[in-house]
Amino acid sequence: MIFSRKVKNNLVILIGLLVLSTISSCTQGPSLNPFVRANTTIEQAIQKKIAGQECCYLEYGVKESVDGRVNKISRTSAVKIHVQYENGRFRGTGTYFAYKGNHIIVTAAHLWAAGPPLVLQSEALVTGPSEKVIGKVIYWDPLVDIAILIVPKMESRNAAKLIRDPQYSVGETVVYSGFPGRNSLLTFQGQLAGDGYGTSLAMHSMAWGGSSGSGVFDSSGRFVGVVSSIMVGRSFLGPQLVGSIVYISPANLIDMEYLKQNLRIMEDKKNEGF
What we know:
Elements lengths: L2 E3 L13 H6 L18 H7 L16 H11 L1 E8 L2 E12 L2 E6 L15 E5 L4 E10 L4 E6 L8 E2 L11 E6 L7 E10 L5 E4 L10 E4 L4 E13 L2 E13 L5 H16 L3
Parallel strand pairs: 1-13, 3-8
Antiparallel strand pairs: 2-3, 2-5, 3-4, 4-7, 5-6, 6-7, 9-10, 9-12, 10-11, 11-14, 12-13, 13-14
């Protein structure tokens, strides 16, 4: 799933339009009282919907260069995210990180467009090449469009380091890997183009449904943010896709104190036997 934004006078079509009703009800950042209900997250129900589905992760040789190293980080940490609802599911991409003794997945908040998750309770299915794990939502910020799940250690993925890029440069080469459409894992390069709409960054690249939540890395392997949306402009023929502009939700806008707080809560629950 991927959605698009309105930029100045350009018409934007939100492929995931339902997310607007969620965002409009939120006037603050992430909250422990997030809005409505947990999605139907019984593991059996999720497994029933995607029983037998395997991720296609093709392995390629990678040159020992800066670009090759970052491509490898991007590809070996990418996972599929499946958010289940009563009438269907949303699918996107996430990135597997090691952080303060935990394993987390960073993805796009709008994957929960059909109903906001209940932080510390709602779950989603995370799939790698040969395994499936259940992730629990520990962070959800619809304004920035970033969500974070805590997951068990994954044997089929290499955890990237959560090192954020302290400063972005126009023209900087970036890389992301994701699962657009019905494709197997694809890797794209692009260049940062400047500030996008609202809090986002703009990059010259391409993305379509299924790319949402893909982790974007700079040429040093630092985490820039997640693929959030695409731009649709207006022409005399009607809405027109601006295929070379992709918006990124910046990793620098993750509220790390809020994340650490919820990780501590999860650790306390684990120690108490919940």
